[in-house]
């Protein structure tokens, strides 16, 4: 499998697919796992070829340590992609190539979907995400793109960026793939030992608890239950929020006719993990 690092050579490889064929894209930061592969499989089913981008985007990291320690496993990633049936192009550009030597974020006006939760705790993160996905869409010019609901807020940001930039790319949200413990699969899980992996199951356990009691208990009661559950674990809760699924505005009281989702970010040592779940 050829790994493209330059826009020009990738573009030439994609040229034959431009007329009457469909190109899909799955943007990733690499250290691929079954969660990523589920997106690639779906993209392969729905397109004639799929570009999997592997790029650890510096502008979306607000913590230098997180950027430095982010797992980079290009050889293994390519081997995993080679196990799939279908035409996959790996696009792993250097930052200077993708950003055309100008490695900074654009400043977007995403509204409330960028200011809550991840937006509050990771300054500049969504401008970085919007910028890099826009650059990838412009380099690849796909018909359809695939993103995981694991990063639910990011999925909404990509939808909004695509509308703001008027890019003709369909954005598809895909279900979260989990470990048997229900921990959401994540490249960051590679930084946890067996004991930490087991303990991290508390994240989804709390989301399921929130879903179970969502109808009968108030949001403040659910907050207390979640916070107590984390106190008994080795993880540190950064936030638990219940938000309107459309606006992503966090809420203190439920209202009829609105769909809600629970969101958690928590630390296992220095490793930051996120998850979310629909509440109804
Ligand atoms: P990342 O490499 O973490 O930036 O993720 C690349 C894409 O894979 C994003 O759209 C993520 O939401 C998606 N993704 C990551 N983990 C999972 C998972 N466990 N299930 C489904 N999609 C995922």
Enumerate the distinct ligands. adenosine monophosphate
Percent of residues in β-strands: 15-25%
Rounded Rg: 19 Å
Total strands: the figure is 9
| CATH class assignment of the largest domain | Alpha Beta
Give the H and E element order.
EHEHEHHEHHHHEHEHHHEEE
Q: Which class of secondary structure composition applies to the elements? A: alpha/beta
CATH topology of the largest domain: Rossmann fold
- In the CATH hierarchy, what is the superfamily of the largest domain? HUPs
Tell me the domain tally: 2
What features would you describe in this structure?
- The chain is of the alpha/beta class and 280 residues long.
- The protein folds into 2 domains: 3-174, HUPs (Rossmann fold); 187-278, Pantoate--beta-alanine Ligase, Chain: A,domain 2 (2-Layer Sandwich).
- It contains 12 helices and 9 strands.
- The chain has a 6-stranded parallel beta sheet, sandwiched between helices. A 3-stranded antiparallel beta sheet has the order 7-8-9, with helices on one face.
- Helix 8 (125-140) crosses helix 9 (152-164).
- The structure holds adenosine monophosphate.
Brief description of this entry?
With 280 residues, the protein is an alpha/beta fold. It has helices at 7-18, 34-46, 64-69, 74-82, 95-98, 112-115, 118-121, 125-140, 152-164, 194-199, 202-213, 219-231, and strands at 3-4, 23-28, 49-54, 88-91, 144-148, 170-174, 236-244, 260-268, 271-279. It folds into 2 domains: 3-174, 3-Layer(aba) Sandwich (Rossmann fold), CATH 3.40.50.620; 187-278, Pantoate-beta-alanine ligase, C-terminal domain (Pantoate--beta-alanine Ligase, Chain: A,domain 2), CATH 3.30.1300.
